[in-house]
Amino acid sequence: MASRVIPVEVFDLVIFGATGDLARRKILPGLYLRWLAGQILPEARVIGAARAELSDAEFRASVAAAIAEYVPPARQDAAALAGFLDRLSYVAIDATGDKGWAQLRAVVRPDVVQAFYFSVAPTLFGAIAGRLTAHGIAGPEARIVVEKPFGRDLASARALNAALAQHFAESQIYRIDHYLGKETVQNLMAVRFANILFEPLWNSQYVDHVQITVAETVGVEGRGVYYDKAGAMRDMVQNHIMQLLCLIAMEPPYHFDPDAVRDEKLKVIRALDPVRPEDIVRGQYLAGGGKGGYLEDADNRNSRTESYIALKLHISNWRWKGTPFYLRTGKRLRARESEIAITFREPPHSIFDDHSGWRENVLVIRLQPDEGMNLKVMIKEPGPGGMRLVQVPLDMSFAEALGEALDDVPDAYERLIMDVIRGNQTLFMRGDEVEAAWAWTDPVIGGWEARGEKPQPYEPGTSGPEDALMLMHRDNRRWREIRS
Ligand code: NAP
């Protein structure tokens, strides 16, 4: 089964921060791969912009180096690379000054799709948005793409939304959450809303609980000082995990349409109960395995920022009242693993004498490392000797089922940038969604700050602090194992 590639309209994409880490690792290699796949027409242009004084040739050379470093060898193609580099140019610009804007105006075409990617610090968003309109560069249909973090609390998110809204309509603003660009995350919507099988069971009557795990093996080394101002709650839960939670918990939208989907996600966030202090466990990794601990990485001996968090949440609506959602994410854990597990309830009555082998049905949606889904069901243990039950996985590994088609699956950034050009906002966060997520997050963080709580130390290479295990044991439940 080969995947279909439909070229997008001709565009001019300006990348502010084109010499930065994100542009070099994700955006530019992603665009090259879409060019290689034939999704970008030769008339399209990519314009790099940053303060550094670079010629077009120097910028192209730096992009070629980034592609050599970040694109897998099997997708390196000299002819395609030369063609891609021909589409690139560079403008030296200062987001907060006058330099470069007239030059940018001269190169951005008014009669093609215009997209402006703000791959810079959020403090520059307002300045760039203002100059794009003041200099008459962005037309009425232009799109802007903004990166995370979108604020660090409700007040700063509101200020960012207000700064962008002065110059662009909500329909022009694409707030990236790259988790929404992952194949499996979108598949979650297909599985829920294109099958009759799951939806009747998708409520508190049949779902015992939901677990969402985003475990990383890396620490915060290298970006510890930045991370120390955020922590796991701001860095992962408020955005990525919240988005996953919304897709699991939302009602079916009336149509797969940007605002219909985002309206339903917003309702989930608004229905979240405040989190009780006893339902929060925060941790900081210790030194180990030849590496420093969180406090050294953050260069802050007194830091109270969490590198791990586990939470138990309740959603107060008809569908979910009574089904807890357990979320956890952390750094320096046993394995790199992201998954959502939906655990169903026990059948109301067992007709079998030997019930000892019985286990709950679990639908596991794996986001990484190997994307796929797996439904654990009960069957009879094969062979003679009576009726004994055993749990087996019904594996829906996409790699097996879809074969080659999966090789061409674009990564999250590739897909999301193409969605920007297509003008499809379904997989981007709307301003009110982001604000609602902060409105829920702020009191949780404010609560532990007011109580003066310190995160608990945990050993690296484990599944986090002991108390996180207790969070579930207390409810007679267990976390799924983080497998190494
Ligand atoms: P970075 O490596 O520090 O790059 C920043 C870029 O902005 C550079 O190209 C820099 O070039 C440019 N810049 C800085 N000040 C400027 C100004 N006044 N005018 C014009 N350009 C300016 O940052 P990054 O890691 O790429 O991150 C960019 C954004 O993406 C941030 O908002 C970050 O939070 C977000 N993000 C990054 C990652 C990641 O993996 N890196 C992941 C998620 C989100 P000059 O100094 O030459 O101007």
How many beta-strand runs?
A: 15
Computed CA radius of gyration, to the nearest angstrom: 24 Å
Distance between the termini: 32 Å
Helical region count?
15
User: Overall mean pLDDT score?
Assistant: 94
Q: Please state the second-level CATH architecture of the largest domain.
A: 2-Layer Sandwich
Largest sheet: 9 strands, mixed
Question: What's this, in brief?
Answer:
The chain is α/β, with parallel strands linked by helices and 484 residues long. The protein is 33% helix and 19% strand. It has helices spanning 21-36, 56-70, 78-85, 101-107, 125-134, 154-165, 183-193, 224-227, 232-249, 258-270, 294-297, 398-402, 412-422, 431-450, 466-473, and strands at 11-16, 45-50, 88-92, 113-118, 143-146, 173-175, 207-215, 280-285, 308-313, 325-330, 337-344, 362-368, 372-380, 389-397, 456-458.
